[in-house]
Amino acid sequence: LVSGSRSSKTFKPKKNIPEGSHQYELLKHAEATLGSGNLRQAVMLPEGEDLNEWIAVNTVDFFNQINMLYGTITEFCTEASCPVMSAGPRYEYHWADGTNIKKPIKCSAPKYIDYLMTSRFGTRDRTEGPNRARWRVSGVPFPKNFMSVAKTILKRLFRVYAHIYHQHFDSVMRLQEEAHLNTSFKHFIFFVQEFNLIDRRELAPLQELIEKLGSKDR
């Protein structure tokens, strides 16, 4: 997807799921189901599995997908070209993480995305995020606020998709990556819709695309 000249400077550290863990097995299950081509089925909670674990595993996977997709167009997304994190003229996003930046600040798109990709998933505490170090080792339970944190993370990941589609889709097409972007986004949308993880109002910047992608699977 990316030439060597870009990849070394644009990709953020990948969020890895420990091999041999139950989460790793869940990720492999998800990948195998995706291979069937049925995205609606692929996002469903596997029988007998914990919902929090399923959401955690998939959130990390989406983080890595978006990280890679955005990494291919960072040379076009700069402080000069994208001084505000936006999704078209009607939607502007400000950043706050509740710790270092408590009051939402206006920032450029690359800065916003850098905050998201290099922070603790934009949450107050690393133990809250889906890639937290312990990952339920020895049956450690998920924190009580896990679902609300996961929803915040996924909302912010959606904003990166929205920014790419609104501001950089021409570049995506020139790189011949539109099929990859569309498939990744379709998987993401089916997942968040399946578990009602993003408020419908947040999806407004890409609502027309979402309806188009969904209509093909009815």
Number of strands: 0
The assembly state of the depicted protein chains is: single chain
Named CATH topology of the domain at 58-122 and 146-217: Butyryl-CoA Dehydrogenase, subunit A, domain 3
What's the tally of helices? 8
Task: Please compute the radius of gyration using only Cα atoms.
Answer: 17 Å
Separation, N- and C-terminal Cα atoms: 30 Å
Major sheet description: none
Structural class: mainly alpha
Protein name: MOB kinase activator 1A
Organism: Cathartes aura (Turkey vulture)
GO molecular function, one term: kinase activity
Keywords: Kinase, Metal-binding, Transferase, Zinc
Topology:
Blueprint: H1 4-10, H2 22-34, H3 39-42, H4 51-71, H5 109-118, H6 146-174, H7 178-194, H8 207-215
Helix pairs in contact: 2-4, 4-6, 4-7, 6-7
Pfam families: Mob1_phocein
InterPro entries: MOB_kinase_act_fam (IPR005301), MOB_kinase_act_sf (IPR036703)
GO molecular function, one term: kinase activity
Structure description:
By secondary structure, this protein is an all-alpha fold. It has a domain of 137 residues: Butyryl-CoA Dehydrogenase, subunit A, domain 3 (Up-down Bundle), CATH 1.20.140. The protein is built from 8 helices and no strands. Helix 4 runs parallel beside helix 6. The longest helix is centred in the last third of the chain and has 29 residues. The chain is globular, with a radius of gyration of 17 Å. 30% of the residues are buried.
